[in-house]
Specification:
The protein is mainly alpha-helical. About 45% of the residues lie in helices and about 5% in strands. It has three domains: about 120 residues, no CATH class; about 120 residues, DNA polymerase, domain 1 (Orthogonal Bundle); about 240 residues, Orthogonal Bundle (hpI Integrase, Chain A). Strands 1-2-3 form a three-stranded antiparallel beta sheet, with helices on one face. The longest helix is centred in the N-terminal third of the chain and has 28 residues.
Length: about 600
């Protein structure tokens, strides 16, 4: 079983609490300047570590919320539930420490001294009891008595004594102080007084509203999400705010509430936000009913519902939510999965790679479908070929850098990873779909014959960082977004070739690649390595070793071929120049 997100087991077997601190809060959270707050839990027992981590998580969440409030320049607002939690945490820690000291007992020859300490403690407890009774009776609490402000500071919260927040918190501490006094007096008499359990982190969470959970989820520095993923989140988060209320207590949300969200999402028209920006989601769904508009597909609906479940699942993991009411909301998809996506047929492939873009066009921008004298070898030329001969996903192709094409053990390979070099912005940041997607793929001989390695070398000579710098991001910051629209749209590349049909898209190249691997009888472990597919059924042995040698994978990839399909018209003629420049560079060029 995986450890809780904030519970870390160290190499020595001991456990520690680790809280991630957002960049903007690092100067405001005690001990958080490095971006991580570490606290040793002092135990090697996991159950005990989880209990102790829960206490620290309560305090850490408090620190983050207070820091955010200070960052916004707002006054600290403390709820009664939060004040109860602080006081309860303090009470537990005080009595647990006392119990530990009594369990250890006095040292050798210290029994008399220990007895004297107990008598002094009884005297001090009597004074404290009178003070606490008076404070609870009159509501008058002094900020310089018994170190109460120090308690707040230790919890990462420093309240102004003149505020109502301080008075609320101080009153709860007085109540806990009375419990502590009675417990310590009983123990000094030799009576049993149990240490109370720490308050449950999920029972009282500061700002545990719909909006609060969404904000914390999106601010989590341990997770990275693509612009496309964030776009789908925005829709389901909007549904939560509109249908349930932004200020609704997240722990009050019932399964039926999530089913209400599902009922609206199922009825939404396609592109509802863009088409009807002034309508709420419920109004857009009602309009779709009235006008019988095309609805979201099953996959899109389930994607939204899975994102809703992911939000609650994260809340449970981080002790913000007691349960996940959105689990298992996805609707059943009875369609045959093999029928949803198809490979390109030999006819399709011949049509694609004999289009003007590959035989000769005016240019590779607006004139890509018009006959001309130029075969312009840039992104639109290479990306489909790369996917066909390496199985790379569209996003993996578009994000390639010139240094991703290299040599391993004498074999030319393409590196597919999400490594950062410190120069990228959000658009340039490389991503992989899954952990298994991090891989390398040998360059197929057909790509070499077409001139891929020569193209890469030319881009390096141009000092290009990205292999296809002309591919620009879409409004969501996705490099593959603009390419996908150009390739798949019925009015553009596939549409102009008359190849638009259900189940056919750029991703079909990856299906062709999988079919070719299958036809070549390549072993399953090599198939997974070449395609970046997950090793769902592998046993423990799969984690041993360093993986496949480049030469081994190359010997398999050369077996890939596509019968009834000829690309010889694309083979690079070294005597002719291979055009890779911008459209303005094209004037006067006679590129092949």
């Amino acid at each position: 079983m995986a450890l809780d997100p904030r519970l870390v087991r160290r190499k020595n077997g001991g456990y520690a609490f680790r809280g991630w601190v957002p960049t903007e809060l690092r100067e405001l959270v005690p001990g958080g300047r490095s971006g991580q707050k570490w606290i040793s839990l002092g135990t090697t027992n996991r159950a005990e570590a989880q209990r102790r981590a829960r206490v620290h998580s309560v305090k850490f969440d408090c620190e983050l919320n207070i820091a955010r409030t200070r960052l916004r320049g707002e006054a600290v607002n403390v709820s009664k539930a939060e004040a109860e939690r602080w006081a309860g945490t303090w009470l537990h820690q005080l009595l647990a420490k006392d119990e530990q000291q009594r369990r250890n007992g006095p040292g050798v020859g210290q029994a008399e001294e220990f007895e004297d300490q107990l008598q002094e403690a009884d005297y001090e407890l009597e004074r404290l009891e009178k003070y606490v009774r008076q404070a609870l009776r009159t509501g008058k609490m002094e900020n310089d008595e018994y170190g109460l402000p120090k308690v707040y500071t230790a919890d990462g919260v420093e309240l102004n004594p003149d505020t109502s927040a301080w008075k609320l918190a101080a009153y709860e501490f007085m109540k806990s102080s009375q419990v502590a006094v009675k417990a310590l007096q009983a123990r000094n008499r030799g009576d049993v007084s149990e240490t109370p359990q720490p308050p449950a982190a999920v029972a009282h969470v500061t700002n545990c509203s719909v909006d609060g959970l969404i904000k914390d989820y999106l601010d989590d520095p341990t997770s990275t999400r693509t612009p496309g993923t964030l776009k789908t989140y925005r829709t389901v988060f909007r549904a939560m705010r509109e249908l349930l209320g932004a200020d609704t207590d997240i722990n009050s949300i019932h399964r039926t509430d999530c089913e209400r969200i599902r009922a609206v999402i199922i009825r939404l028209p396609k592109n509802a936000t863009q088409r009807f920006p002034k309508l709420s989601l419920l109004e857009a769904a009602n309009l779709a009913d009235e006008k019988n508009l095309p609805r979201l597909g099953i996959a899109a609906v389930n994607n939204y519902l899975n994102n809703l479940s992911s939000l609650f699942k994260w809340g449970v993991k981080t002790w913000r939510v007691t349960r996940n009411p959105a689990e298992g909301l996805a609707i059943t998809d009875t369609r045959n999965q093999r029928e949803l996506r198809h490979s390109f047929t030999p006819y399709h492939l011949q049509a694609i790679f004999n289009a003007p873009l590959y035989r000769g066009c005016r240019d590779d921008e607006d004139g890509y479908a018009r006959l001309g004298s130029h075969v312009i070898r840039r992104g639109r030329f290479w990306v489909p070929l790369l996917s066909l001969w390496t199985g790379m996903r569209l996003g993996e192709c578009c994000q390639l850098r010139t240094d991703d094409v290299t040599s391993y053990d004498g074999v030319n390979v393409i590196l597919i990873n999400d490594l950062a070099d410190g120069q990228e912005d959000e658009t340039d940041r490389k991503r992989v779909k899954t952990e298994a997607g991090r891989r390398f793929v040998p360059v197929h001989p057909e790509l070499e014959r077409i001139g891929f390695l020569d193209f890469v070398e030319r881009q390096r000579l141009r000092k290009e960082r990205r292999l296809f710098p002309e591919i620009v991001p879409d409004s969501q910051g996705s490099l593959s977004g603009t390419f996908s629209k150009w390739f798949n749209d019925k009015r553009r590349f596939l549409g102009k070739l008359g190849l638009v049909q259900d189940g056919i898209s750029f991703h079909s190249f990856r299906h062709n690649y999988r079919d070719a691997l299958r036809e070549a009888s390549i072993p399953l472990d090599c198939v997974r390595a070449l395609g970046g597919w997950r090793r769902d059924s592998d046993g423990e042995e799969a984690i041993y070793g360093n993986g496949h040698r480049a030469e081994t994978l190359y010997n398999h990839i050369v077996k890939i071929n596509y019968p009834k399909f000829d690309l010889s018209h694309l083979y690079l003629d070294k005597k002719k120049e291979c055009f890779t420049g911008s459209l303005s560079d094209q004037v006067g060029s006679n590129a092949s």
